[in-house]
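User: Quick sanity check before I run a bigger batch. Here is a single chain. Can you write out its predicted 3D structure?
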Amino acid sequence: MISKILKKLSIGLFVATILLPLACNSPQSSVVEWWLTNTHDGSALFEKQTAISLGKYTEGDLPVIEIDSSHHYQTIDGFGFSLTGGSAQHLIRMSTDVRTALLRELFATDANNIGISYLRVSIGASDLNAYPFSYNDLPDGETDPGMEKFDLGPDREDVIPILKEILSINPNLLIMGSPWSPPKWMKTNHDTRGGSLKPEYYPAYAKYFVKYIQQMQAEGIRIDAITVQNEPLHPGNNPSLLMLAEEMGEFVKNHLGPAFEQASIATKIIVYDHNCDRPDYPISILDDPETRKYVSGSAFHLYGGTIDALSTVHEKHPDKELHFTEQWMGAPGDLSKDMPNHIKQLTIGATRNWSRTVLEWNLANGPDHKPHTDRGGCDRCLGGITIDGDRITRNPAYYVVAHSAKFVRPGSVRIASNELAGLPNVAFHTPAGKTVLIVLNESDSTQIFRVRNNEQQFTSTLQRGAVATFIL
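Assistant: Done. Predicted structure follows.
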């Protein structure tokens, strides 16, 4: 009797220790959801496709994108746009119900909407406002070093109410502020365009930033980060400011950083905010230990240089953040060219080079590309959407952002994937435990390929120029 019991126990132990682990480790039947944009002919515009079966990996002849979730890189803060004063102006003039529906489409995080997670706003006017202004404009000859007359002014008419409406839809949205120019009474040329910041007004300008963050907070709008100056090496815009690296470093080290510290402001300070052709600019600032202690990272545009400049900065200062904050598309827009370019260079390129954000320029404008300032304001910048009264047109940048923002939520982490000729791609692991893969077919013909994730795989086909986001 005892021998029979022991025999049964032995069989049971064999099942428990051998067969059950095999069952647990075997691939589970599953599918891959995916969204597609066919940029060549527009036959699919960010449209959900029939799910693809996910099976066990086997060797084959097709090219393979291999995802390796064991290699982690940077955390993602978000994808989105710049909400310019012009964008807000068009939005605020829409009928309430139409505007609310549009903002929900853009910012709500439920299954039916895009869920934009990051916005950049201008501190004062950008060149996509109707006219240049700061938050402390004074009659000629007057100054206000104590910032007693600081006021958010024109932004109370459109930017602030639109931000409040957006935050009511997505309260976790992150916001970055960037100035195009200080008040002109602080500048060497007393003009909104060009000139430099007078050293005697460095303390006043630091107070200007403090006041901005405090007054926005009083409106219920938290500023996650600021850049010290938009395009500091481009004084030809309106508004604009020339601020050399040594000047920005001095301002941050001895004025802005200490002012934030004294006022207990947690908003991140981001330096540079200009093209990829000058990685030496942020590196030189971060090389100074007394300055870098106040700096969270640096930001880039791609009107010059190559996107791997971000990795150049990362290699020198791997503990500092990188952000991609601006790239325009020119009117009238060309889906077949603009979208593949931005997906390759920004969505894929910037994140593969350590960027935590990818922001398009800009969210919205009118059919005439207005408003913009005179004497240098961009008159050909195409918004992610065009607003004509209550009529809405979704432009290429809309689809670029949709393919990432909807699925790569804040807190996602970039993971490794191999680079294949003709199939640039990038992969992420999300807080919900999903794997997201964004792929562009940049070749001149249809591509059939496989994707391997651990011991599972699926096969997909993309037309030339097509962009796909796969969710595993």
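The radius of gyration is 25 Å.

User: Great, the batch can go ahead then.
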